[in-house]
Amino acid sequence: MCDVATVQKIANCLGVAPGKIQLNEEQVVTRTGAQNKTVSGFATILESLARESKSETAQNSIVTKEVQAQVYQWIEFAVLYVAPGSKDKHVSKQLLADFNKLFISKSYLVGHFITLADLAVYYAISELVKSLSPLDKENYLNLSRWFDHLQQRPEIHQGEPMLNFTTIYLHNWATGTHI
Amino acid sequence: MVEEKENTASANTAAGQEPVSKKGAKKQAKAAKKAEQKAGTAAALAADDAAGDNAADHASGRYGLSEMIQSKDKRSEREFVSVPELSSHVGKGLVWVRGRVHTSRSKGKQCFLILRQQSSTVQCILAVGDIISKQMVKFAGNIPKESIIDIQAKPVSVPTRIESCTEQLLELCVEQIFVISQAKAQLPLQIEDASRPENADEADGLNIRVNQDTRLDNRVLDLRTPANQAIFRLEAGVCRLFRDILTEKGFTEIHTPKIISAASEGGANVFTVSYFKDSAYLAQSPQLYKQMAIAADFDKVYTVGAVFRAEDSNTHRHLTEFVGLDLEMAFKYHYHEVLHTIGNTFTAIFKGLRDKYSREIEAVGQQYKVEPFKFLEPPLILEFAEGVAMLREAGIETGDEEDLSTPNEKLLGRLVKAKYDTDFYILDKFPLSIRPFYTMPDPNNPIYSNSYDMFMRGEEILSGAQRIHDPEYLIERAKHHGIDTTKIAAYIESFRYGCPPHAGGGIGMERVVMLYLGLDNIRKTSMFPRDPKRLTP
């Protein structure tokens, strides 16, 4: 996830010119913004983009010190655990179950508004969610709801095909036997 | 307290080498006290018993173990009443009832016994008095569960409902009680446990379940539970409705051989039996013989019989032996004549079950969660291509000619339920490439065939099609599938003497009952199921 493409996507999301994004010799992503200042590291880059952005997401992420701290924690979590974990068969199951439990009573990761945390986790987990069968999507009902909700925003799906979540609404209509 | 100190002192002196600790001494004292009490009550009970046994038994002759019924006496003067009919006998004197002891508990001068007859239970009471003696009450309390008893009793109405029985407004005041067939004291499973509803939500409730293997190993006991009684009566209803509805439509019942010389349907595995010096096979389906009956001018036939599939599938919906309800029908010009007949037969069966077997359905619902079965009239018919389109809309990628996998079938069932609100639907015009060689291709579109499947709650229950009735065309299609025509020479021969166009299909009786009730395992609807791991009972 911590690659050039994702950073560019997030930059587009926030409505900020990405500048020059590349990987340095240590394979760490760097951004060279205005005034030729370079920052490296995914979380740091996200913060620098957010500072330059006037979007709702960015503004929400710095509304209070607590929110800022939580957002940073989530971004770290996304980079260190979610992205690599989503590629492992067993860890990913645990991840999905944990997120599903989290979203039972929350619509967003931090507070009641969209923040960078949601973006980071969204992009970290999107490949994994793409690979889920309709039955899985239904089993992780709350996670699916959050994901579907986010992907509706044009700045997030950015013209890419949206994942199909229509079957999660079967949950109340037709539960089916022997599933 | 005084006692304790004394004991401590004596313990100390008696121990000698090891001074017993205060705690140890207390323990010893407690044990001694307990033993004393126990001895005391035992002596009292014995005295009581002796007094009771010695006391004259004024009820002798009115209870006891009956001698084995060898058809010695006709006893035609005894009129027996069944438990559901008892309510019409309240206040009308004594009646005889035969049933099983469901539970019995005696408390001092009274004994409450619950008598069970198939799905009905009624409370019986014996109280020491003029007619009943203490010994009789004791005898009644000691009858092992599941024993068959005859009682003569007076049905009386009760002021408060007896919640634990099906007969809630009356109880039987017993005057005579005889054991006809005594059950072993230790039962491998308790009927109460086997009948307990599967409420996962009850946190406080007893969670004793009897697992499926135990049930199947002791099927005789397991089948006595009210839910199982109801399930198999419903299954009988399905067969009866199938026969009645088809007979009314002019069908004739036939019986086809089960020992055959060659595997009839491609794909499924066959059981081999030794046939004198040769071997033969057990029929996988009556397909070939149904068609021969049509060629023999029977026009419309159906058959109810065993089907044997040697598939090593250990799933919730496969058995190695099951009952097949098969039908075949000649038609004039279009196979939809048959399709609609089959669809309407199903609708009539569902209606019959709903209207005439509602009590059984309710009884099953006491133990298992039963969601009412919804169906449309006339039945919903979708084309295979439409089904594929619905799946694609939901994000499933499947090819135009690809067979539906089980998860896709189930998902399609739920999509259909959500869109049309029906648990039963028909899928018509399956792709030709996934059907057997004797299926008639669609004249208008070479990709499809005149074949259909029917689904209940998203699971397939019937596979059928228009069969090829022209021998030359049949040979062509067989060659196309790479089948050696010499092996099916007899089959092809039956069409050489003029055969009308015909179509049909077959259903699994156990599967239909399982899906109608929404049960989770086919072994629940097979009385003595056979699967790769089970050959007894």
Summarize the structure in words.
The complex is a heterodimer of chains A (179) and B (537). With 179 residues, chain A is mainly alpha-helical. Chain A has one domain (4-173): Glutathione S-transferase Yfyf (Class Pi), Chain A, domain 2 (Up-down Bundle). Chain A has 10 helices and 3 strands. Chain A has helices at residues 4-14, 42-52, 56-61, 65-85, 89-102, 116-130, 134-139, 141-151, 154-157, 170-173; strands at 20-23, 29-32, 38-40. In chain A, strands 1-2-3 form a 3-stranded antiparallel sheet, with helices on one face. In chain A, a hairpin with a 5-residue loop joins strand 1 and strand 2. In chain A, helix 1 packs parallel to helix 2 (42-52) and helix 4 (65-85) packs parallel to helix 6. The longest helix of chain A has 21 residues, at 65-85. The two termini of chain A are 33 Å apart. In chain A, 34% of the residues are buried. Chain B has 537 residues and is of the alpha+beta class. Chain B has 3 domains: 63-181, Nucleic acid-binding proteins (OB fold (Dihydrolipoamide Acetyltransferase, E2P), Beta Barrel); 191-222, no CATH class; 226-525, BirA Bifunctional Protein, domain 2 (2-Layer Sandwich), CATH 3.30.930.10. Helices cover 34% and strands 22% of the residues of chain B. Chain B has 15 helices and 17 strands. In chain B, a hairpin with a 2-residue loop joins strand 3 (110-117) and strand 4 (120-127). The two termini of chain B are 63 Å apart. Residues 3-17 of chain B have low confidence and may be disordered. The A-B interface holds A 133-135, 163-167, 169-170, 173-179 and B 316-317, 393-396, 407, 410-411, 413-415, 417-418, 457-459, 515, 518, 520. Chain A: One of its GO terms (biological process) is positive regulation of DNA damage response, signal transduction by p53 class mediator. Chain A: It holds the Pfam family Arc1p_N_like. Chain A: Residues 48-168 form the GST C-terminal domain. Chain A: Keywords: Ligase. Chain A: GO terms for molecular function: ligase activity. Chain B: Keywords: Acetylation, Aminoacyl-tRNA synthetase, ATP-binding, Cytoplasm, Ligase, Nucleotide-binding, Phosphoprotein, Protein biosynthesis.
